[in-house]
Amino acid sequence: MKLKEVVAVVTGGASGIGETVAKYFASNGAKVVIGDVVQESIDRVVAEIKAAGGEVVGLKTDVTKDADVAALMDAAVSSFGAINVVVPCAGIIRDGVVINTDRETGKVKRVMETDQFRTVIEVNLIGSFITLREAARRMVDNKWQGVLFTISSVNKVGQVGQINYSSTKAAVAIWPHILAGEFQMKGIKGIRVMSIAPGYVGTPMVKGMNQDALNEILKDVHIARLIEPEEIARAIAMVVENEAFDGTCLEITGGVTYGARSIAK
């Protein structure tokens, strides 16, 4: 399946990796549908894609709401006649440790509140579930072929201070195995499922980090730099165009080597 043949739905498509994916697909001939929670950002990205000659529509979408996601998928069908690729980039972080103690007394002074945990689960995990479900039901009913993606992370292995975020990324990394198996069991052909697990990507948010902290992170990256968002977009495009990718998680980390420095010492 070539990019110029697909209709791609991208949530979180008005910033970060999602914006880059949307623009990359559009620049290579795909018809793109963007969902995001920030209308001003949607308007900007839609205008930029159209100015570059791409075909795109955008819709304000809260991925935690069934009706919003259903409306986004219906917009893809009404605007472009199909759904072939779904990339749920909508996601948030709310970092913090579960138990925070006082340095002097050793007693608990703060805990991660349930809402801090739940909010990340709702957007990253439930939002991805709703997105894939609403796309899949339309693709199956209309016999549209394509690829359903999940966006995992190198931190799916478990990052200190990210029990909420890492939990969601570990979960979505195994969805392709589950869904591909379910599709096989039900005789559903032509819809592949893949997870993409990026390492440290040079989004505006990451590049705006404290430089010393960023340099410490890069000491554990073999290529010694941030991954560019377009490198993630190209990898997603490669999966779309190569039918052998199915039912697994593709890590794009630049060679994250946690622990290598301590072992060397």
TrEMBL record:
Entry's Gene Ontology molecular function annotations: oxidoreductase activity
Family matches, as PROSITE patterns: ADH_SHORT
InterPro entries: NAD(P)-bd_dom_sf (IPR036291), Sc_DH/Rdtase_CS (IPR020904), SDR_fam (IPR002347)
Keywords: Oxidoreductase
Family: Belongs to the short-chain dehydrogenases/reductases (SDR) family.
Name of this chain's protein: 3-oxoacyl-[acyl-carrier-protein] reductase
Organism: uncultured spirochete
